[in-house]
């Protein structure tokens, strides 16, 4: 099945089983554990499979419900894996952003030093020209 189809189709598969149960199929009581974020119990597949001996639940519907349930569980595990990956990448991104800020600060400092060196170079050039002009005047006098 495709990426998102499992979670979308799973409620439909369990809906068929619920309709069959309402018509008089056997009801199982016991732990009703819900998977985080899912709208149907994980043990429903096992319970429905155990009820498969009853003529009110067809094996084809049990097969579809199991397929849809497993598809939904796979989709949910993919979502959890994606979330875990984002949580792992978040600190790395923070470190990279911090290093980027430090590099930007260093580049800014280099630009300031370059500006100061250019000003100093211009000042040295003016002093050189002034001394050169004084030499010429001294030789002429």
Automatic annotation (TrEMBL):
**What residue intervals traverse the membrane?**
none
For this UniProt record, the keywords arranged alphabetically read as follows: Nucleus
Residues covered by region (Disordered): 1-31
Where are the compositionally biased (Low complexity) regions?
Answer: 7-16
Q: Does the keyword Nucleotidyltransferase apply?
A: no
Per the database record, which ranges form the SMARCC C-terminal domain?
A: 69-139
Biased composition, Basic residues: where in the chain? Answer: 19-31
Protein name per its UniProtKB record: SMARCC C-terminal domain-containing protein
Species source reads: Miscanthus lutarioriparius
